[in-house]
Amino acid sequence: QVQLVESGGGLVQAGGSLRLSCAASGRTFSSYAMGWFRQAPGKEREFVAAITWDGGITYYGDSVKGRFTISKDNAKNTVYLQMSNLKPEDTAVYFCAAKRPFGSKSFTNRYDYDYWGQGTQVAVSS
User: Fold this and answer.
1) Which is deepest, 21, 27, 83, 126, by most CB within 10 Å?
2) 37 pairs with which residues across the strands?
3) For the chain, what is the mean pLDDT?
């Protein structure tokens, strides 16, 4: 079982930066791939970024490529999402998610993730 707690959200002006953190409980965190998703009001939950269990490969949604960076610190049981050059359309609740090893090879499908945090709100003003 893995429990995830996000933090670092807030209100920022367009062009600004934020770093989200997701702290995980459980001794098996290092074996999990991790992802970030977001959901704006009235919209579907959208893939943002993902990282393999060892941090060796990263994936990004088209709308955030070049602006967001995902990283994973297995020693601290934490995954981060560094967000730069934020835009009003980045406003959403951001969720981190954990994906068991040996499962689906997809990293972008929310249904392939096994554990979810409660989310943290990010608001970007224009």
Assistant:
1) 83
2) 47, 95
3) 95
